[in-house]
Amino acid sequence: MAYPAQPAAIETLLAALQKLVPATRISPGELREHRTADADFGFDLPQIAITVTAADQRWQLQVGNRTAPGDQVFLRVIGTDSAFVATPTGSNFAAHGGRLAQHRAGGGRSG
What is the pTM of this model? Predict the structure, then answer.
């Protein structure tokens, strides 16, 4: 299901995405060895799933669980064989994505 873009929410989300700083790469081998990686890292039920389409290209980003200390999140770009641990600097990424999802679920549309 597609929803019209909400400019303010999109700008906030893009700003939060720009502030994500990859701290650690989780290699394909590490993911294969960790049999419950999808569940443990939160990719089976991601906090946020974003699909970006531009011209004939498409990217899907999953934001999984927070790390044990709670200051980083697990990220995966669908179609790649790695995952990342990233630090959302200066912004609470999950909160921005949650507000966007709440707006969408509430049916709010403009334009």
Answer: 0.70
Which amino acid is present at 55? A
Angle formed by the axes of helices 93-105 and 7-18, nearest 10°: 160
d(CA 69, CA 72): 8
Cα angle vertex 25, ends 19, 28, to 5°? 140
Q: What φ, ψ does residue 36 adopt, rounded to 5°?
A: -105, 30
Q: Measured on CA atoms in the order 92, 22, 61, 52, is the torsion positive or negative?
A: positive
| 57-88: pLDDT as tens digits | 898 999 999 999 988 999 999 988 899 999 87
Report d(CA 81, CA 89) in Å as an integer: 25
Task: Locate 87 and state its tokens.
Answer: 């630090």
